[in-house]
Amino acid sequence: MSMIPSFFGNNRRGGSSFFDPFSLDVWDPFKDFPTSSSFSRENSAIVNARVDWRETPEAHVFKADLPGLKKEEVKVEIEDDSVLKISGERHVEKEDKNDTWHRVERSSGQFTRKFRLPENVKMDQVKAAMENGVLTVTVPKAEMKKPDVKSIQISG
């Protein structure tokens, strides 16, 4: 069981994060504001594209759930050599005037998630793969150089 307080990120038991020092997501005060179905179908985004960030001894690994998206609809970028940006767009399904919609729950529109990366990563070796609606981004770690330590003889 982790002793890290839940305000440092989402915990695995479904708790929500209050503060994540590495996340650059912008809080949207209107996120849960009720809208008409036509507005939400045309303009809502996959704002809450769920992303897990795991650190291993070798790399930082990000996994994003992006169901229904093709790899051509997703962009992975590094900004300012320190920010991982995952973005994309799900297009609105074409409407047929003869169709009657009974429920519209799937979102469409653009999404962007940004994560500030630590300094010990190899930005030039970032890899991304998409399989079964899950985007995996691997950011390898750079070896931390240990400082040279020289013992000084104490005379006396």
Give the structure's gist in a few sentences.
One of its GO terms (biological process) is response to stress. This protein has one helix and seven strands; from the N terminus they run H-E-E-E-E-E-E-E. With 156 residues, the chain is mainly beta.
Key features?
4% helix; single chain; rod-shaped; 156 residues; three-stranded antiparallel β-sheet; mainly beta; 1 helix; 7 strands
Write the layout of secondary structure elements.
Layout: H1 37-43, E1 51-55, E2 59-65, E3 74-79, E4 83-90, E5 109-116, E6 127-131, E7 134-140
Antiparallel strand pairs: 1-2, 2-7, 3-4, 4-5, 6-7
Helix content range: under 10%
Uncertain regions spanning at least 5 consecutive residues: 1-18, 35-46
How large a portion of the residues is in β-strands, by DSSP E?
Answer: 25-35%
Determine the mean pLDDT: 76
Estimated structural class: mainly beta
Distance between the termini: 51 Å
The ordered string of helix (H) and strand (E) elements is: HEEEEEEE
Total beta strands:
7
Give the radius of gyration.
21 Å
Q: Can you count the helices?
A: 1
Q: Give the biggest beta sheet.
A: 4 strands, antiparallel
- Tell me the quaternary state: single chain
Q: Strand order of the main beta sheet, please?
A: 1-2-7-6
Shape: rod-shaped
Polypeptide structure, described:
The chain starts with 36 loop residues before the first helix and ends in a 16-residue tail after the last strand. 4% of the residues lie in helices and 29% in strands. It is built from one helix and seven strands; from the N terminus they run H-E-E-E-E-E-E-E. With 156 residues, the protein is mainly beta. It has one helix at 37-43; strands spanning 51-55, 59-65, 74-79, 83-90, 109-116, 127-131, 134-140. Residues 46-150 form the CS domain. One of its GO terms (biological process) is response to stress. It is found in: Cytoplasm.
